[in-house]
Amino acid sequence: MSTPTTPAAPGSTALDPAIAARLKRTDDGLLPAVAQQYDTGEVLMLGWMDDEALHRTLTTGRCTYWSRSRREYWVKGDTSGHVQKVKSVALDCDGDTLLVRVDQTGAACHTGDRTCFDADVLPLS
Amino acid sequence: MSTPTTPAAPGSTALDPAIAARLKRTDDGLLPAVAQQYDTGEVLMLGWMDDEALHRTLTTGRCTYWSRSRREYWVKGDTSGHVQKVKSVALDCDGDTLLVRVDQTGAACHTGDRTCFDADVLPLS
């Protein structure tokens, strides 16, 4: 299979057409996907999904994102071992954001932090 | 003051330049901002912030977003009364996503649901 360099065009994947019809994508064909630890409620990270990444996330049990920087699909944990087992996926009221509840193994952040939001808390004034 | 129709250009606002320098914005000048109920951990909604909305969020105690559809700043709750009091704001490891912990009054969703992710849970297979 050739490696895609752009997100899949809407309607070109095996994603349920009834779901695909409800998605409101960015100009790049993506939706932001918030990953949350299902039991503690920790917000772990935000990734991006096209229709194909969403389809794989719904059907493989493993969170799959579209990497905007590497321009390829990315199964969370394939390199690091820090996998995300999918517990549930919800689409928001506007159809433009996903909430994926997962069971995160180890650190969600590539820095080794548990979440991507641990290191840089901004000052309130 | 005239009403802006586009997000503020980076560097044009009163946002702390040390923070502004760490932001990686979309082509539209925005960052996704995940709003989370600070005590229960509920993911309430996802909005968008430009530098000015982030500055207002950090300094007014009330969550302020940039509305992509209405093309204006939007203080959550100004119309509905469903305000978000800001408890903390964190920037993620890549500088491209915000996590805002808030105390949400009433429903976060315009549909009346507590969160924007309550109504459309997608089937796993």
Description:
2 copies of one chain form a homodimer. The first copy, chain A, is mainly beta and 125 residues long. Helices cover 11% and strands 32% of the residues of chain A. The first copy, chain A, has helices spanning 17-20, 51-60; strands at 31-37, 43-49, 64-67, 72-75, 84-91, 98-104, 120-122. In chain A, the strands form 2 sheets. The first copy, chain A, has a 4-stranded mixed β-sheet with strand order 2-1-6-5, covered by helices on one side. The first copy, chain A, is globular, with a radius of gyration of 15 Å. In chain A, 36% of the residues are buried. The A-B interface holds A 16, 19, 22, 26, 32, 34, 36, 40-43, 45-46, 58-59, 61, 86, 88-95, 97, 99, 109-111, 113, 116-125 and B 16, 19, 22, 26, 32, 34, 36, 40-43, 45-46, 58-59, 61, 86, 88-95, 97, 99, 109-111, 113, 116-125.
